């Protein structure tokens, strides 16, 4: 098991390097960038210094290495400094946003909690809801519930999130006024009333995400259950006189969950990428909104960093999916 | 017997495509017409549905139905072109990886790395950085179109490549390929005459799903304001424009949204139906 994880970790290093190179080069090779994208309001001598720092006159490979050093060495050190009060990254040039003129990572640290709460919460809730949905559908294939799920999943896949989210927001927030139309980031949960407010402002985005994902994951679970149900060990369990409940929950579900867990892990990056849309509609001040804001303002360092963070998330989720799969399925570990 | 989904998807898609393609003849109002007389222009703004404008007019007094039909032409064209690009690229990579042993490891590693790219953020960045340059080099209409099609195609070929590779790996062990090799046929000829025709069926299913994916992604990009320029209507950009007035005129979001949903639904039905049709094991389920 340990060797498997080690090997898998080693494979992700080149993947991460390739992806970081793509992210860096896309922004770096864009016409006119990066020097001409610096806002005109910055005085000429400062501009020259920025260009010097970015190493614009150096070859692309050197610039890439400089950037890697910033991303993998200086920023983590700065994060440690901020946590433990040390000064390891002092005096080093950090990745600086052209909008706020402050370190990019500070903005990201500010925005991340909202995204994690809303998008992560929605996905988690969706995965939990998928359990009963998938189980009931698998036990009666072709039944009313199963057909209903098939229809809802098909609609869920075809309905773009931005449309459902916009309509839900219009109906429940703007027309009926049950929920706030914008997410209040400054809200601190201190008592019951503010907790209720927090729940109310999270309800719509989390609900939309949860329902959309529950249908998709439930569909996978249904298919996985159908593969396990006719197997011999399930029959043996039934023959031993176990209750149907026990057969399904103890003998079928754990086996069916193996591929589903992988699907859940692999879907995570897409869901966080989709955060851009959800956050725009529900006006959540998260990382996706930060990316859109940075794109509109041509804040290249911010854009580059956020896209790279998304890429790291993808690689990380692939890694987690593989390790989980090995941990749950002994055949893979010993095979 | 043909699957009901296949028939439904095909009928829905054919209807949509016909409506969009014949749009200018069916509904001859000019989608770009803004009344030059300011008084009449102001009076024509934000009209509700009527006989003259069945879906009403937008904030500049343009007919929404005509704009919807014109937008549909662009949305469908984007979806189809991106699909052709993705399928061509994916099939080429997949066939090469499956047929040429020495290239397999490298190409599949590349495919996996490509699959790990964060799709939506990267597309947004690509459009942001290259849109102006593309408009300047290729014209204000062709530029964004080619850029968006290229970006969507270049980020959608990986599933096709994996599928094609798997098919080629199993086909190459079959007797008819062995026989072709036995009578001295060379690689390119075998690929053209024996592999590609046998690949057509599974790739077709992947291709239909590619179209749905591309139309959805284009509308997401336009929705976020990074797709086509405002005076270049697609379903996504119409929806984006309508979002500002969603409280007073929800129809302006609803109609383009419905068009996107129906198209994607039709393509998904078609794909599912085709998959069942081509795979007899699934047919009785």
Summarize the structure.
Chain A has 335 residues and is mainly alpha-helical.
Q: Overview of this structure, please?
A:
The complex is a heterodimer of chains A (335) and B (285). By secondary structure, chain A is an all-alpha fold. Helix content of chain A is 77%, strand content 0%. Chain A has helices spanning 2-28, 44-54, 60-84, 104-139, 144-158, 161-175, 192-228, 232-239, 244-282, 287-296, 300-328, 330-334. The longest helix of chain B has 37 residues, at 187-223. Chain B is mainly α and 285 residues long. Chain B is elongated and about 80 Å long. Helices cover 74% and strands 0% of the residues of chain B. Chain B has 13 helices and no strands. The mean pLDDT of chain B is 81.
Annotation keywords:
heterodimer, A: 335 residues, mainly alpha, 12 helices, globular, B: 285 residues, 13 helices
Number of helices of chain A: 12
What is the rounded Rg of chain B?
A: 22 Å
Note the main sheet of chain A. none
| Class by SSE composition of chain A | mainly alpha
| Whole-number mean pLDDT of chain A | 80
Give the oligomer, counting copies of the same chain as homo and different chains as hetero: heterodimer
What fraction of the residues of chain A are assigned to beta strands by DSSP?
A: under 5%
What global shape of chain A is seen? globular
User: Helix share of residues of chain A?
Assistant: over 70%
Kindly, what is the distance between the CA atoms of the first and last residues of chain B, rounded to a whole number of angstroms?
Answer: 14 Å
Task: Summarize model confidence as the mean pLDDT of chain B.
Answer: 81
Backbone CA Rg of chain A? 24 Å
From N to C, what is the helix and strand string of chain B?
HHHHHHHHHHHHH
Helix share bin of chain B: over 70%
- State the low-pLDDT regions of chain B, or none: none
